[in-house]
Amino acid sequence: MSTYNTKVHLEQGGETLVVESGGVIDIKTGGKLLSNGAQGAALTAQVTTITHTAPGTPDYAIQDLINTSAYGFATKDEGNTVLSVIKNLQTRLAEVEARLEAAGIVIAN
Q: Strand pairing partners for 18?
C-alpha cells in the first residue's frame, strides 16, 4: 500500500493548515487572506514622497546636529544621506503596502 503525502494539508483534527517545505498557498486575483473573517485595517495613507539631492559621497556616520550652518548637519553629504535613506524607506514601505493590498491582507487606501 502506498502513501500519499501532500505539501499543503490540514493537521489531524482539522484545526491547523500546514504548508510543508515546497508547498505553496496561491491566492488568486480577487482572493483574500482574512483574520477572524475580516481584512486588516488600511495602513496610514502615504504622504508625498520626498525628493533629494544625492550625496556626493554617502556619509552614514551622522554626527550631532549643528546650528552653525544652513544644513543642520556637519556636512551637506550627511544631510543628503539622511534624505536618501528616508526616501528609500518610503519607497520600500510603499512596495510592502502595495503587496499587502494586492494579497487582500489590508484594505487599499
A: 9
- pTM listed for this prediction: 0.57
In a domain, 90, yes or no: yes
Look at the chain and report how many structural domains it folds into.
1
Number of CB atoms found within 10 A of residue 104's CB: 17
The answer to whether 73 and 6 have CB atoms below 8 angstroms apart is no
- Domain hosting 35: range is 29-109
Residue 106, strand partner residues:
40
Count the Cβ atoms, other than its own, within 10 Å of residue 80: 20
In a domain, 73, yes or no: yes
Question: What is the pLDDT, as a whole number, of residue 2?
Answer: 60
> Could you tell me the end-to-end alpha-carbon distance of the chain, in angstroms, rounded to an integer?
54
> For residue 40, is it within any domain?
yes
pLDDT (tens digit, 9 = 90+) per residue, 71-107?
Answer: 587 788 888 888 888 888 888 898 888 888 887 788 8
